[in-house]
Write a structure and sequence with these properties.
Helix content: 10-25%
Distance between the termini: 42 Å
Number of strands: 13
Oligomer: single chain
Mean pLDDT: 76
Strand content: 25-35%
Shape: globular
Structural class: alpha+beta
Length: about 260
């Protein structure tokens, strides 16, 4: 476990990495004694600072929600992170320079209809969405050490494309086979990846239930209207200026993003 001073130092390193757009070494090399609880607490330090500066919580995301990715990373559970208002981009052109080492993937979204403290999750509507994954760490120092290296960067590492549009329909989970939803990712007109929602712990709703229990252990609650990303169903793809991506989801719709 780290001391409070070490956690604060680690949070500052991550904050400065994004401010300066300068990737850093994995923090496990700086703080070898760091644990998973430290990682989440470090992320929460930066989240609280940003909330105090006026940002709001847009929702939460779950990572490593497929068993294949867990085995690859040598962990036995997913991880989670906050989504803040500044992390949400409207569908359309995006500023590539605002993202460190960007990668792109497709996934589903869930909105709870009422607050939960971890004892249960009410299944709300779903929407489609893109995710822009970015790393604050130097890619020549990969792989990172399990959840310790992932969880603490979740305070700033995610971007979501596709704000809620009241003109678009919200799909009720009872109307579709959630685990049977398929996704196809296109770069321009070329198909580059596809996946099934069942890859997310067998059914994305299981990831949402896990999230509710996990955040409760850190004093965080899922609130009505929060957007929840239960996990990606396609692989991550590197994004560069000029790239245009489109994700098509069965029974839900599509969303697109362009990098400028």
């Amino acid at each position: 476990m780290l001391s409070d001073a070490q956690r604060l130092s680690a949070a500052n390193l991550l904050r400065n990495a994004e401010r300066d757009r300068a990737p850093i070494d994995p923090l496990t090399t700086v703080f070898p004694d760091i644990g998973v609880v430290d990682a989440y607490e470090i992320a929460l330090l930066n989240i609280r600072e940003r909330l105090a500066a006026g940002e709001t919580v847009y929702g939460h995301k779950v990572g490593l929600s497929s068993e294949v990715m867990q085995r690859m990373m040598g962990v036995d559970e997913p991880d989670y992170g906050h989504l803040l208002s500044s992390m949400v981009y409207a569908e359309g052109p995006d500023r590539h320079r605002a993202v460190l080492l960007p990668a792109h993937r497709g996934g589903d979204r869930v909105r709870p209809r009422r607050d939960t403290t971890g004892r249960g999750v009410h299944r709300g509507g779903r929407a489609r969405g893109h995710r822009i994954h970015r790393s604050q760490y130097r890619t020549d120092r990969l792989p990172h050490r399990g959840l310790e290296d992932r969880a603490r960067r979740h305070d700033r590492r995610q971007r979501v494309v596709g704000r809620r549009d009241p003109r678009r329909r919200t799909v009720e989970p009872s109307k579709v086979d959630i685990g049977g939803i398929s996704a196809v990712l296109f770069q321009g007109d070329e198909e580059i990846a596809r996946g099934e929602a069942s890859a997310v712990l067998g059914n994305p709703t299981k990831a949402v239930a896990w999230l509710a229990r996990k955040v409760a252990s850190f004093g965080v609650r899922l609130e009505a209207g929060h957007v929840i990303l239960p996990g990606s169903c396609t692989r991550a793809v590197d994004a560069r200026p000029g790239d245009v991506f489109r994700a098509e989801f069965s029974d839900i719709g599509s969303v697109s993003v362009e990098f400028k």
